[in-house]
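Folded chain entry —
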Amino acid sequence: MDKSILFVGVGGQGTILASKILTQGVLKAGYDVKMSEVHGMAQRGGNVSTQVRFGKRVYSPLIEEGTADVIVAFEKSEAARWISYLKEDGSLVVNNYEIYPITVTTGNEKYPENVNEALKNTVKKTIIINAAEIAESLGNIKAQNVVLLGALIKALELTDIDWEEIVKENVPSKIVDLNLKALKLGLEA
């Protein structure tokens, strides 16, 4: 199984952590893995993208336009922004969540309307998840990244890996239980 996964979101959403957990999981499963991350203006609410490629043998972490098997979007307009990276028969996992950029909050631009519908009309395999709502129901919206990761794991049929152990290794002990619950709900979503 050779897969190219593009994670896209906004700074502070946990995009990089989700990518690292995926990377460690598939590495422990015996795959060759490469990961690359771009922070941009992440600490200022800018976009963040990480690229994870795994398979029998991977030479580069970089995903070219039109070659991603899956895009995981932590914010729905980011899905629209990066859609050109998805291969024709690829899958899109989208958090049904909006973060307004400064240009929208100042009134200079409008947030795009009907993003989910446009994505579904463009990509046959589109999965919309209310990851932020699920995380908030657990008491912490920051767990939305692990909810999305759970959905991705299910979509990739990688459920035979010990993801609980990998989550425990990657999050602070005080929030392990929260993240394990988020992972479970993401797998179910």
